Amino acid sequence: GNKNMIVHTSAENFPWQGTTLAVHIIRFLSILLSTITVVLTYWFALVIASDENRPCNDTYAKTLAAYAAAIVAFNPMFLFISASVNNDNLAAMLATLALVLLAQLVTRGATMRRFVALGIVLGLGALTKVSLLGLCIVAAVVFAFLMLRNQQTFVLRPSSSVLRPSSFVFRPPSSVVLGSIVSAALVIVIAFWWYARNWILYGDFLAFNVWLEIAGGRRTPVTLASLLNEFQGFRISFWGNFGGVNIIAPEWVYLALDAFTLLALIGLLIGLVRRTLPRLLWLSALWLALILVLLVRWTWLTMASQGRLIFPAIAAVAVLFVYGLAQFQQSAISGQPSAVGGRRLALSVSEGSAVVFCALYLIIPLTLLLVLFSRNPKFNPRYLMIASPAFYLLLAMGLASISNLTSHASRLTSHALSLFRSLASRSLAPRSLAPRPLAPRATPLPTHSHPPCALRRPTPTRQGTRRARVQSSSRCCVTQWQRTIHQCSARVLRLRVLLG
Q: What SS3 state is found at 102?
């Protein structure tokens, strides 16, 4: 039957006006924010990999980062939400950016610039979605970790008034303390007014009472067993629950994704036992655990078992998935040091991986749409907005390719012109064909001056001198043409290298 919940009229046709125009602008903004989330996921995975004394440009690090970005980009529900009017898109982008900044504080140094940027991002996240307040807890843990790692301990000895190193008094570095205070102050300045307003208007800092009046609370007391029964809806809605939460994929799709998830969890357990996981992976695990706790708290109040509510931690989920599956390579199973411990994955990112990635980013959503609408022939072109991020990426890559081709074409043209000039100069250059002066004819010596057995040099004749001159001229021409052919072959080889 018809599963549409909204009747679309001709007022929504292009050119858009009024509310329709505003909705489309916000949807395009959501697409842009989701595209940035995919890029930040790649960046976050690179920073996680660099924690193991591995450069960010390492093939292994880039491979894992590409896989993590692909998990985010190819999540059907993430694609669906990316083309919707929803604050989850901004929340996911800000949360991923905060994770990147926190990871950089650990791996690249606690600079004041990073503390300021982190405070701004955390403040904006607190204004965007209440669940992003959990990032403040993650930031506090990271700040404590930095203080413990760079601690300076002193004790005042009774016999001296000089502070000397000891293990009794804890004194964190002043740069970390000052940076933490600055970050906290920025969060308060940016977001505190909103929660103060909630308290003044509704008597609740988080305004949960108003949300429950709008969404409706639970009529029966919730139990742990009932929450486990709702896990089915959470599992489906994380990967794909479309429309008005009334269009789902075939069951085998979710079973395959369940197997994918189970393998990742087993791989993480293997990594924990073998101690082959990156040390900084605890950052992803901590944020995912906090977002799940906050989801359970919200679900305890109302029917909200939706997987999209953990999309602020989708980058952390992708990184955990990638490192869990990476443990199943041959070195991890056989007991040898895994790729994280030193060996690289057998897979490598080819030069055209970006093109393949964007092509799949474009093809998979369209294929998904065909599968979903095969039973329902009603189709609207606006559904194609789900593939807009891939279209934008492919368009940018096409423009970059055109720029590269233009530079290559100019270089090829210059080499071709130089080759043509060389050939023309060689073929049109005047050659000196004037006869060489004849050598003076040898005067025969008297016969008596030579011993009887001596061999006298034959006297050169006019015909022999002419033959020698022709042979010398021929050798000169052959040498010039050999040099020309050598130069032409070198230029042709250079052109072949440029053409790839």
A: helix
Q: Which amino acid is at 3?
A: K
Q: In whole angstroms, how far apart are CA 255 and each of 156, 250, 258, 362? A: 64, 9, 5, 24
Q: What residues contact residue 344 under an 8 Å CB cut-off, 6+ apart?
A: 58, 59, 60
CA dist., res. 76 & res. 141, Å (int) = 33
> Is pLDDT of 200 > 70?
yes
List phi, psi (to 5°) of 55. Answer: -65, 150
pLDDT tens readout for residues 325-377: 888 864 444 444 444 444 444 343 444 555 555 666 666 666 666 666 655 55
Q: Evaluate whether 356 touches 335 at the Cβ level (below 8 Å).
A: no
What is the β-pairing status of strands 152-156 and 247-248?
Answer: unpaired
307 band by pLDDT with thresholds 50, 70 and 90: confident
Q: Which of 117-131, 302-316, 477-491 has the lowest mean pLDDT?
A: 477-491
Strands 163-171 and 241-242: unpaired
Cα distances from 410 to residues 304, 383, 417, 423, 495, in angstroms, run 59, 42, 11, 20, 12
- Report yes or no: 485 and 395 within 8 Å, Cβ to Cβ: no
Greater confidence, 149 or 343?
149
Q: In angstroms, rounded to a whole number, what is the distance separating the alpha carbons of residues 209 and 489?
A: 81
Burial 450-459 (b: 16+ CB within 10 A, else e): eeeeeeeeee
**Cα–Cα distance, 31 to 242 (Å, whole number):** 17
Confidence at residue 337, expressed as pLDDT on a 0 to 100 scale: 41
Q: Are the CB atoms for 287 and 313 separated by under 8 Å? A: yes
- Render pLDDT for 81-94 as a digit per residue (tens, 0 to 9): 888 888 899 999 99
Residue type, 358: C
Mean pLDDT of the chain: 75
- Largest CA-CA distance found in the chain, in angstroms, rounded: 143
Rounded to whole angstroms, the Cα distance separating 394 from 443 reads 88
Query: Using an 8 Å Cβ cutoff, are 336 and 276 in contact?
Result: no
Can you give the pLDDT at residue 242?
80
What b/e readout covers 13-29, taking b as 16+ CB neighbours within 10 angstroms?
A: eeeeeeebeeebeebee
Cα angle at 182 between 110 and 278, to 5 degrees? 30
